[in-house]
Each structure stands twice: as structure tokens, then as C-alpha cells.
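Encode chain A's predicted structure.
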Amino acid sequence: MNRKSILMCPGPSEVHPEVILAMAKPLVSHVDPSFFALLDRLQDQLKTIFQTKNTCMLLPGTGTSGMEASLINFLDPGDKVLVGIIGHFGERIRIIAERIGCEVKVVSAPEGNALDPNDVENAIKGFSPKLFACVHAETSTGVLQPLKDIMDICKKYEVLTLVDTVASLGGVNVPVDELGIDIVYSGSQKCLGCPPGVAPISFSPRAESVLESLKPRNYYLDLRLIKKYWLERVYHHTPPVNLFYACNKGFDLIIEEGLINRFERHRKIGLALQKGLEVMGFKFVAQRDVQNPVVTAIYLPPEIEDVKLRKILLEEFGIEIALGIAQLKGKIARFGTMAESARPQNVLYLLSALENILKRFGIFKESGVDVASSIL
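Encoded structure for chain A:
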């Protein structure tokens, strides 16, 4: 299939041409000296992007491999885990922790809301978990979870912290060391602007001491063995060499743009899309004060079937969006403004296409393009 779509879904995002070209470099062995030098560069880049001095690596696989590695390497069966759930991907953390054999307690928020730090603290006091885990940017709802107060509470009670930044790293500020996050992972295909297939991960010295104290129960995603490969060049597995080339170039572009500039670009583009959608009459899943700038989820009016909307946008306008999942399936549409997709022309084109569709259904209210243009 040769159709080129504009990716306005919450991952994968558009990829810069230089990132694509990087994958065309000649393949080298995973033990070639030049590849080991690349591993060193990638570690330095990740430390800049994660804003940390902690250990950083890339894992094979998408964000879910980072999620699973972040749980199975630091937990034993019977350990107590508190999971903060604000959507589908928090539920996935819960499922993995339960499959490990952990005793899991959930603290959640109403649909479209973020976790209340007071609820988290009360749950910790009544449960005494070893680890607290949550999702920073929940792509199923468009909620951005504020982290500082919750991380401070976890420090107070000496609870290990695990944060999923699959949809936020590289587009929203995630100052890992400043927040004191112990374990954090992401995915290459969203705000990092790289192809899917790689999961960045970082863990603190405190988490590392827990890692070393546990008996290994997995192999492919054993962080002890992967760390030995990255730092000591002890063979473990053959990594996706050409994807690492792509990440190296993608991370270069992030650092060249500057983290502050990049965060501001994503904020401004997301705001323009959301203001445009708002004047057109759409209602958001996420509450205004926790609206994610890189993922926007809207409820669809009864006149528009979700599958039909996606089909029209894709086939007539060449725009790829996402629909609802889990409990929101059939009710919403989701848009991503990430990495190379977070560009003014993409937002204006998407809003224009939506206006066209609303007019067909006789429910057009006001032009969102004009509002978005004034912001951009």
C-alpha cells in the first residue's frame, strides 16, 4: 500500500525525512565498535531528553515492552502495587502487575479527570505499597496527569514510583530528576518522532538497588543483562540496529530544537486544535485543567458515527485519526499533535476537513479554522 496519510492520531506520529533516511545506513553488527559508540551517544541523548543523570537505555519493542520491563524487573509475586488509573493504559499496568502475582490496589478518577493526590495519599497510608504506578499522558482520554504532588507523596512514604511517558516524552515537560521518578519508560513513535519499535527506559539508583536484589524471572527484557550490554558490551540480544540509527537522528532533532522550544510548540499547536474544536461545538473528554496538549479526545455528536467519520477523513482527506477504545469505544474520536505531526498546516487542514463533514450532516456551528489561525 503506497497511500501517504497525514498522521493526526495519538501515535504513530509523522517522522522527519532525515529520521527515515537514517534507517537506510548500511547495517552493522551489534558488536561493531561503531555501534558501541552509537550506544554511548544514545545514552547521552536520553539523559538530556529524560532530564536525568540516571541509567538510560533503549529496549526492543514498543511502549508496552517498556511497561512490562518496568514492572517485572522491580517486582516479585506478592509485592503490593498501587496503580493510579485514569484510562485504558493504566488498566494495562494493573493487568501486568496482577499477572506477575502482585497484590494490586487501584486508585482511580472519574472519566476525564486526573488523580486526586489526596486519594493517592490515603490509598498509600491504608495499603503500604512497594510501588506506585501511573500514566502521565493517557491517550485513551486525553488527560494529562499532574505529577509533582503525587511524586512528593510517594517520596514521603518511601514508595517506588513508576511513570508511563509513552505519549508525553519529547512533547511535554517530564523533568525526571526534579520530580524524583524512580522508573520511567516511553515509546519511540509518538512525541519523540521516531518509527515504532523502541522503548526508552530510565531508572534511578534506588530502583537499581531493588533490581539487583531480586531473583531474575525473565530473560529478553531482563534489565540487568541489557544494562551489561549497554555499559559493559556483554552480549545479550541483537538490537534493532537501524531503528537505533533512526532514534539517534530523531533525538538529535529534539535536542537541536531545544526542549523548552519543543514543549512550547506542542502546547501552542494543541491549544489551536482544541480551541478550533471547541468553537465548532465539540465537547472534550478531558477536563479543561488537565487537557493534554498532544492528545485531544472529543465526544462525537449522535449524528456522526465514529467509524464513518474515520473513513471519510482517511479516504477523502488522507487524514488518519483514532477512535475510542475500552469503555469509550464508539463514543469519541482522538487526535494526536505530536512531533512532526504538530505543525500548523496539519491542524488547519484537519479542522477544515471536520468543518466540511459537519456541514454534510447539517450540524456546523462556527469555523474552527479562524480561531486556530489566530493562535498559530
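The longest helix spans residues 259-279.
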